[in-house]
Amino acid sequence: MTLATDRAPDRDIALVDLLDRLLAGGVVITGEVTISLADVDLVHVSLRALISSVSTLVEP
Amino acid sequence: MADALVYLYAVTDADVPEPAVDAGVDGAPVRRIVAGGLAAVVSSVDPVRFSEESLRRSLEDLQWLEATARAHHAVVDAAARTGPVAPVRFATVYLDDDRVRSLLAERGSEFAAALDRVLGRVEWGVKGFAAPSAAPAEPEPEPGAGPGASYLARRLAERNRAARGQEEALAVAEAVHRELAAVAAASRRYRAQDPRLTGRREEMVLNAAYLVTDDEALRQVVEQHTGGPVRLELTGPWAPYSFATLEEP
Fold first, then answer.
1. Helical H runs in B199-235?
2. CA distance A46 to chain B (A)
3. B-chain residues within 8 Å CB-CB of A29?
């Protein structure tokens, strides 16, 4: 099964679901030839940034 | 562009058509670097904006993060429509094309194995939320008990009920995961999403991904739990982000 052609448009994908996969999923390649943030805990870094950003937008 | 860096989205089979996508991150065109039967899907990007230092700062910018994440996803998604894909973690940048070619050469057999694992399969996400508990039955007041004691008895009963409800939701979530994993080629669990990011009041008791050839059995499991203590939501199909690993499973 490859991705069907009739799928939800990108805007329907929740950012949090996407970030789970982009930041915590995917092949992690580290090494001297790479400038990669894979060795940084991206989930931790970004969530902290996101929470501080979102908290100013979302009502408590 | 002088000394452009190379942003890597994913590794695919060289033999499949190129991904049909207009642009990737930073509006950059998408191309492939082919070596040894594999193709690295890449974009040339600005060396200042995609330096390590810039990237670390950019990750703090929600608007940049969302735009770039969606652009990255558009490329991986397009690639997944033409064949098996090993998506690479967000913000993986190489110094030049040669380094990418070396990557493909040095780890070719591992990438080939990764592509083999996902061939003909897609990922589905399943999230589970604890359903709101039903209203509690009023406990019988003790004969002769005053209003204060009744109030405390009610509060205690509410707390106990909520705790039992949560225990039950967690137990059902574990059972759901076992059932879903049983019909999948592979599964992967994620941390519960922060409610400040999701805006959801209910507790998330399951956040997982399942690699399947088709979604029918998965949907049947989800349907069987309709009306239970855990509300299940499906997302997908996804390119196999959660199953891209170069290590042996």
1. 216-224
2. 6
3. 8, 88-89, 92, 103, 246
Closest CA to B55 of B114, B126, B5: B5
Tell me if A26 and B69 make a contact (CB, 8 A cut-off): no
**pLDDT value for B249:** 43
Enumerate residue ranges in chain B where pLDDT < 50: 248-249
**C-alpha–C-alpha distance, residues B83 and B125, integer Å:** 20
* Helix, strand, coil shares, percent, chain A, to 5: 50, 5, 45
- Please tell me which of A4-8, A27-31, B116-120, B134-138 the model is most confident about, judged by mean pLDDT: B116-120
pLDDT score for A48: 55
Residue of B35, B45, B37, B39 whose CA lies nearest to B7: B45
User: A25-52 burial string, b = 16+ CB within 10 Å, else e?
Assistant: bbbbbeeebbbbbbeeebeeebbebbee
**Contact in structure between B241 and B88 (CB atoms under 8 Å):** no
Omega prior to B17 cis, within 30 of 0: no
Other beta carbons less than 10 A from residue B206's beta carbon = 24
> If 0-12 CB within 10 Å is exposed, 13-18 middle and 19+ buried, where does residue B159 land?
exposed
Asked if B11 and B104 count as a contact pair (C-beta separation under 8 A), the reply is yes
Of A10, A18, A36, the CB nearest to B92: A36
How far, in Å, CA of B26 to CA of B120, rounded?
Answer: 31
Matching residue, tokens 């199953």:
B243
Stretch (H or E) spanning B210: strand B204-212
pLDDT of amino acid B248: 47
